[in-house]
Amino acid sequence: MSNNTLPDYDLADVTDVSDPAQLHALASPVRNAILELLLERAATVSELAGALDRPKSTVAHHVSVLVDAQLLKVVRTRRVRAIDERFYGRTARIFRVGTVSPTDGGVTPYCNNDLATAAAESVPAHQADQLSSIVRHVRIPQEQAREFWARVLELANDYAQLPRGGDVVYGFAAGLYPTDYPALPEAESAAD
Hints:
single chain; 192 residues; two-stranded antiparallel ribbon; 36% helix
């Protein structure tokens, strides 16, 4: 378990996700928004519905899908007028998506491209000249790419732990992916 202060409940740092039901649950923008909100603190269905400006019944359905996929759990309850109000929390800070090889010959489940989501969310900021972004291409060994990505995940976790305040929610996106980007040949040695 992590000792970080956010969210206000215990959860694992990283969980590997490869089960088709989990991947299906993660493929919904609404469910991703729920998971993101719960990085701040545990919340009830009513609180989530209010934050998302969605009907309570719709949010309850999405929460149920996430609970069934073991991505959310009830972290505490509160008695309100003879009814137990449930507060939901994530089961992990980071859901690391693995690959699924279908055994029945079916199609591999769809999973969100977080960079595509970030690109769509960032359009208004780009148009208002309020977007900070960078892309770099580097030819490195795969192991070095894995080590760098581990550092990025630490940075993303640090970002998620920043004290909450202000009037604007800022997005942070990162991606590491192989490309067909051109590379210079190895430099010739000075002795040649």
